[in-house]
Amino acid sequence: MLSFDREGRLLTWFVRGVTYKRALNSRLLARRREGEVRLRWEIPAWEVPELFAVMHGAVELAQQELHAPLLKKVLHWTPDNLMAERERFATAYAPVSILPPDQYFAVVVQATRGCSWNKCTFCTFYRDRAFTVQPPAAFAAHLNAVKTLLGEAASLRKSIFVADGNALMLANHKLLPLLDMAKATFPGRDLHGFLDVNTGSRKSVPDWQELREAGVRRVYLGLETGHDPLLAWLNKPGSADQAAELITDLKAAGLNVGPIFMTGVGGQKYAEKHVQDTLTLLQRLPLSAGDIVYLSPFVEHGPYAELARQDGVLPISPEEVGQQEHLFREQLKATHPDVKAARYDIQEFLY
Description:
By secondary structure, the protein is an alpha/beta fold.
């Protein structure tokens, strides 16, 4: 089984129990199940053209039988043409490092580049770039490049995600003109974006109402844990109280929220308090239908590994990570039955 966008470019390919997913820049991820275990890996760059060639051959065989006008469009995308999309992507975007799972098929527009904090020990998503705000002229050029890259495939993308990390922290007088430009280029779509607790707390309810009126619908917040000492150990600004206050303000402004919590973070040393205080925070949050709580299995990388070694923080088992997720889901069912909980596996992200 193969699927394509409206430009004829490969999206997904399922063959012999393996699902391949192609990113806009022609990275290729693979996934398969072995019993209860889900295996995932990235195809090495040197191997990608060969797999594209196999896919192209399958389409050629189908076309010999079907003579479908649509497949003529697909056959334009030879392995070389698909690989050339890497260059086109690079002219439109800085790396798109991460998105919430429900926004994987958004139109991503980079109003900012990087993260305004960029010092959390567990995160390396934006370490390759300084935090910058796109001037209006540069942002307009970026929007045009994205529109050209997507072409007819933009019709599959029903929302706009305002990137990069915590782009919604920008003062409204800077942010609103950029949002208007994005909506004019990609009309008829709601807006979404990341926000951190520390900078987000600087805005008032009227500020958030103004963004709601401008088309922002859901704000995603990396809360990680309800345990303040663990946040401090992770070098993550903010606190559980600040998180609760900010989400209260966002909800008062009529916005939906997507708080993100990590399961397994802090290892054995912090496990008990991480669970206890996160359950307490989940109970406190004024969540309602339309919100999504994401539970993200912790993946160790970046400075975290060295910090854990120095402080003797040992990881918990995969079974214990699963138990944390179960407890968080049960808390949501008990206190916020209308709120959706979903897994956020960063290893499956591509754009």
